[in-house]
Design brief:
This protein is of the alpha+beta class. 29% of the residues lie in helices and 11% in strands. It contains 3 helices and 2 strands, in the order βαβαα. The chain has a two-stranded parallel sheet. The termini are far apart. The mean pLDDT is 76.
């Protein structure tokens, strides 16, 4: 296990696709990063939905989108 950063510049919560990418790019820029993940990195919803958060993609063609699209 890597050493923990005592006073990180950034704390990333969630080791999914997005969390890992954010932590990686922050480390590339020289920031001290702590990544918090309760299970296995990449083992949550990222492996099921590839980290996709797109409620519009679930709408049928021609459908108004219901209340979700009205929020924008």
């Amino acid at each position: 296990m890597p050493a923990r950063t005592q006073n990180p510049d950034l704390v990333v919560i969630g080791g999914g696709v997005i969390g890992l990418a954010v932590a990686w790019r922050a480390r590339e820029r020289g920031l001290g990063v702590t990544l918090l993940e309760r299970e296995l990195a990449g083992g949550g919803t990222s492996r099921v939905a590839a980290g996709m958060l797109a409620p519009v993609s679930e709408v049928e063609f021609g459908e108004a989108g219901g209340r979700m699209l009205e929020l924008g």
